[in-house]
């Protein structure tokens, strides 16, 4: 099962419920605005241990006090809300809490012992907690005499749903009963959870929810207690935080590494791959299909368009995740012969202060053939391609019908508006879709190229606005012909077109002069905050540094901008955005939130997370991979048996080596020197290499 999605304030909007033409619907539909909590509890100061469907939300001191969202969750249900340790009647003095891995946190505390005369603590307490609730508590003596200390752990749960916790509607703690070597709780709905301990406690007080031990420590010795949370009974664990017990992991995403003169890219890549693996979850109705949750803790529902974008940016780690994500999304495709046939179902989501909500189903429809085409270039197996190609063809059929009337693709309904970002997605889908159909010997490629040509001409005529500063693209055109000129991070998608055969980069919507002007705009302080690309420029009406579509930095858009700018030769702007992203990642201990405030960077300042942002988030973790690999500019063509590297000549982080990547199903490694020269060091046998 997947964690229940909790909508963030001001983001999802309630979509229509039926699949009428132009009216998105389907899995993942968010509730109406009236049903949403006024504020989500902040989790940005918490340590989140993630191995979906298991999740642990912990404060830095390590105690689970039951306050706010703290606790151990599985499939959106809080199994444990309170776990408070006392030694000799006192709580340890908390010194440090840190993430040891994506699914594991370590906490260190100390205690002065009775009889100690100096200020030095004689006992250290280390707690290691995993996402599934498994916890190891180790007492370590540093004194020269034997110790006998009472140890007490107070436990409790409300078995509340994550949505109820987020909205402050969780119920009171349940009454416990003694069960085996621990305690057990049940609610009125037949749900149950148990905590077992090793070694067995000397005493269990069910009324207080307390387990007790007498710990004996020799001079310099240790004493360890292990706790385990079980859902339903004391014999079946809830989940595993490792790679076994059905957890998807290494077979879907390779363990890539980066070694650089600057240590930050290596840390960011390692953390991002860990987070991507932790966010993998199975479709309950189709266990073979694994996709990325959009983000923890609030967006762990059905497969989304963000999951597909993340799978695309993670293609250098292998094509298996793209396959399973495409398969899961394909089940949301509308069938039949009507005008909406071939479109994906999907909810509406808020698009900021100037535009009505956009349709994530249309976004997924346009992304599907593009991701499939690029996965083929990275080495998608033929059997998977043949299975998914008919779905992509139906998406492309919808695209041609949607663009047939005006040459542009409306979003969310036939009456518009016509968004620049949607035209960029449609243009990419048409070009890459034509390349896909040609490569598979299927008809329709010429028609799609004509659709792309018409869209490009119409876009440059109707969306490019001339001004004394050199011009800019408009954000959208309304049904009444009104132009929305507001410039923001969405413009990065105009440079992002994707790979064609022979390692060629597909032509974008803009000509060379317009691309150069857009690069200058993306690199200017109005959009480049110093931490990344703002969603809306500071000089635009409605700008809000915390607006998720009105000024906040979105990692996905920043990563797209870095890769797109580097691909078309604007390395100065790409390097500036990449360095800002690396600095932000360091401030967030390399676990980037999906978005953070677009406030201007100042000396000594730090980026501020958006209060409703997920962390970790799929597009942020995958976006970090995408931005870092722009340094090497890898362009694979597995069907053509070639791969080339087009590194950034400026080498903005110095020399760097990427290893553990996957091209054509085999390990791939590439090195970029301090002078920006690339060298492929490892590749599948038979691939023609180029730099």
Describe the structure.
The protein folds into two domains: 178 residues, Beta-galactosidase, Chain A, domain 5, CATH 2.70.98.40; 434 residues, Glycosyltransferase, CATH 1.50.10.10. The chain starts with 46 loop residues before the first strand and ends with a strand. 55% of the residues are buried. Strand 4 and strand 5 form a beta hairpin. Helix 5 packs across helix 6. By secondary structure, it is α+β, with helices and mostly antiparallel strands. It has an eight-stranded antiparallel β-sheet, with no helix packed on it. A five-stranded antiparallel β-sheet has the order 3-6-11-16-15, with no helix packed on it. The chain has a four-stranded antiparallel β-sheet with strand order 1-2-4-5.
Defining key terms:
single chain; 691 residues; alpha+beta; Beta-galactosidase, Chain A, domain 5; Glycosyltransferase; 5-stranded antiparallel β-sheet; 12 helices; elongated
Summary, kept brief:
With about 700 residues, the chain is an alpha+beta fold. It has 12 helices and 35 strands. The model is unreliable at about 1-35 and about 235-245 (pLDDT under 50).
Do you know the CATH topology of the largest domain?
Glycosyltransferase
Our count of domains comes out at 2
Please, what is the average pLDDT? 90
CATH architecture descriptor text of the largest domain: Alpha/alpha barrel
Q: With helices defined by DSSP (H or I, 4 residues minimum), what is the helix count?
A: 12
CATH class of the largest domain: Mainly Alpha
Oligomer: single chain
Q: What order do the strands of the largest sheet run in, or round the barrel if closed?
A: 7-8-9-10-17-14-13-12
SS strand fraction? 15-25%
Q: What is the makeup of the main sheet?
A: 8 strands, antiparallel
Estimated radius of gyration: 26 Å
**Number of DSSP E strands:** 35
List the uncertain runs: 1-37, 233-246
The 3D shape can be described as: elongated
**How much helical structure, as a percent, in the residues?**
25-40%
The structural class is: alpha+beta
Could you tell me how far the N terminus lies from the C terminus, measured between alpha carbons in angstroms? 45 Å
